[in-house]
Amino acid sequence: MVSEVVKDSKTIMLQMSLEESTSAIQKAIDTAKNVNQRINNNPRKQAALLDCVDLMDLSMDRVFDSKEALQNMTTSSVEDAHAWLSSVFTNHVTCLDGLEGSARTTMEPGLKDLISGARTSLAMLVAVSSLKTKVMIDEPLNGEFPTWVTSRDRTLLQALPKEIKANVVVAEDGSGKYKTVKEAVASAPNKGKTRYVIYVKKGKYKENVEVGKSKKNLMIVGDGMSSTIITGSLNFVDGTTTFNSATVGIHSPRYLVLEHSWATEAPSSGTSRRDDQSVINRCRIDAYQYTLYAHSNCRCVPKLQTSSPKAHEWTGQHDIIASPYLKLVKGSIRSYLGRSWKEYSRTVVMQSYIGDHIDPTRWSVWDKDFALETLYYREYNNKRPGASTSKRVKWSGYHVITSAEEAKRFIVAKLIQGGTWLKSSGVAYTGGL
């Protein structure tokens, strides 16, 4: 249900604020490029500045999308704008986090202003949307979905690889049009209006793949989790930033992945995601830290064998599996559900089976008491042998959820508005508790 909206001064102020932010973002892009030109023989600092350019470019797109969404202020448009403006905030913070030395000194004042502005825009959006919509309810799980989720997408995600008609084939033995996934992605149309399918035959592809933001409506299909494997080796030690170390980096929206694996041969992220409304189905990711580096702008449902999200994300019907070697040292090496990496982070583990290798305290600190007052960590209705909460951490930000009403805030229908787009993708999920 939606309502009519008559713009008032607060709504106009929000839109003006977003308009002004675009010039500030462009200034940050120009500054990063100029500083990058002055830095010599420091690949890591240069890489961090290039990350900032990419992040600011994404922020510019998300601000524009938010301005468009706020033209009508419906329930779905407000939810979209909130997700996009949250990603803008995260982009600015991530840019600043990656900088050091003279580059940070030069960039920091402008970035702090951008971070403050993004935070203010989010607060204004919450205030304006609360005032201007008479009815703000979650979309029902009624089978009505936006135009991007077509019946063909549902069929594709439910099909076996051999049943899918691909636009292009990748094969390491030369039997396809391309030998690398990177080449196939580059050949895909920009801003595609219909689903473009890349079929990757059985094999091990040693490469790092970047799916640019212009590669919309892309789908990559393999021959199975143990048959089609993309493996990369970029890592921080060699000068690559965490942000760009992913075996598969995804910037494009409406991205579908089916029946293959990503792996890393060095401590880096398995996949980095900055997209929206995407599905990872029947896949496996083997990696080290930040296995699934879901950076921002993410409302997705990965079904993986290992996941470590950093953004607005819901993961379900999947297994988080530690290395089998951990079993041999279970008594001497501690494992945790998570740690306090960022302030105001939210993590909820609910209705999950927790193994006995997880430390009874469950949660670890990042650096002394950093972020412990602002985090939101919750557990709800988990299963043994590691589900007991009697020895959990005593942080003010950690609590056990005892109310089903509170738990419902994190179901598919509410957290990622799954009812508006997910069901017709063909992925099995539970809409409620």
Automatic annotation (TrEMBL):
Family according to the record: In the N-terminal section; belongs to the PMEI family. In the C-terminal section; belongs to the pectinesterase family.
Pathway stated in the Swiss-Prot or TrEMBL entry: Glycan metabolism; pectin degradation; 2-dehydro-3-deoxy-D-gluconate from pectin: step 1/5
Locations listed in the record: Secreted, Cell wall
Protein origin, superkingdom: Eukaryota
NCBIfam families for the chain: PME_inhib
Record keywords, A-Z: Aspartyl esterase, Cell wall, Cell wall biogenesis/degradation, Hydrolase, Secreted
Reactions mediated catalytically: [(1->4)-alpha-D-galacturonosyl methyl ester](n) + n H2O = [(1->4)-alpha-D-galacturonosyl](n) + n methanol + n H(+)
Predominant location category: secreted
Top-level class of the enzyme under EC nomenclature: hydrolase
Gene source species: Quercus suber
Molecular functions (GO terms): enzyme inhibitor activity; pectinesterase activity
Cited function: Acts in the modification of cell walls via demethylesterification of cell wall pectin.
Descriptive protein name: Pectinesterase
Name of the gene this protein is made from: PME2.1_0
UniProt cross-references to InterPro entries, sorted A to Z: Invertase/methylesterase_inhib, Pectin_lyas_fold, Pectin_lyase_fold/virulence, Pectinesterase_cat, Pectinesterase_inhib_dom, Pectinesterase_Tyr_AS
CDD domains: PMEI-like_4
Domain Pectinesterase inhibitor: 1-124
Record-level GO BP terms: cell wall modification; pectin catabolic process
EC number(s) recorded for this UniProt protein: 3.1.1.11
